Amino acid sequence: MDLKESALVDADSHWYYQSKLVPFRRALRKHSHGIKSIVDIGAGSGFFARSLTDFDNGETAICVDPNYEVELTEKNGALSFVREIHSPSADLYLFVDVLEHVEDDLKLLRKYTDDARPGALVMISVPAFLSLWSAHDIFLGHFRRYKLAQLRALIKAADLELLECNYLFGIIFPIAWIVRKLKRKESPASDLSSIPGPLNWLLLKILKIEHQTSINKLCGVSAFGVARVPNIEVG
C-alpha cells in the first residue's frame, strides 16, 4: 500500500486492497509449498507482506521502502521495515505496484531476483493500460502503465520462469476508464477513497469472485504476474 494513500483508506476493510489480496493468496496455494520468508520491495505500509505472512504462517517479512522516515520492527522482530537491504534471501519476493515508479523497471526487478535462490517465487502487480492514465498516476509518481505483453516481456528479460499472468479488476474496467477520462485534466490526486459500507461489501464480493481465477487476459485496472527463479542448469 503506497504511503501516499495510507491515510486515505483502511486497507484492512477497503474493497480494493482486500480483493487484491485474493490473487496473491490463490497463487501461494497453487505455486508454493510453504513460505517462510518474504521480501516486499516498495512495501509502503507493509499491508501485503503482513497479510501474506499471516495467511501462509510465514516466519519473517522484510518491507523495503526508501520513503520510510524511520526503520522499525513489529511482531517481535518478525516484520521489519527498512529503507534498503542488500542481497536478501527469501522464499517470496513481492513487487506490488512498485515497478511503475522507476524509470528502469528491469533494473529494479533484477536487483532483487538475480541472486535469489532457485525456486523462489516472485509476484508482481502493476497498473494496466495507458488509456487509464490520469491525475491518479501523476499523484503517485508513475512512469508507465502495462499491458500483459509488456509484463511478460519484463519477466522474461529478468530471466525468470513465468507461471501465470492476467489482469485484475476487469469488472470495473469500463467504469474506471470513463471516470479517468473525465478526471484526466484535474489536479493530481488519488482515486482511492472510502465509500458507503454496503457498496464496499458488494464490490468486495464481486471482485473476490473474479480474482479467484487467472483467466482474465482481456482487460483490467491492474496486471498481475507470478514467476519463479529458475533452477540453475548444469551443462
Query: Strand order within the widest sheet?
Result: 3-4-2-1-5-6-8-7
Determine the number of helices (DSSP H or I, runs of at least 4 residues): 7
Instruction: Tell me the Rg in angstroms.
Output: 17 Å
Largest sheet: 8 strands, mixed
Unreliable stretches covering 5 or more consecutive residues: none
Q: Which structural class best describes the helix and strand composition?
A: alpha/beta
Q: In what range is the share of β-strand residues?
A: 15-25%
Tell me the span between the first and last alpha carbons: 43 Å
Order of helices and strands: HEHEEEEHEHHEHHE
CATH topology, by name, is Rossmann fold
Query: For the residues shown, what is the average pLDDT?
Result: 91
Q: Which CATH-level-2 architecture?
A: 3-Layer(aba) Sandwich
Work out the helicity level: 25-40%
What is the total tally of β strands? 8
Q: What do we call the CATH homologous superfamily?
A: Vaccinia Virus protein VP39
- What is the count of structural domains? 1
CATH class designation: Alpha Beta
Please state the overall shape, judged from the principal axes of the Cα atoms: globular
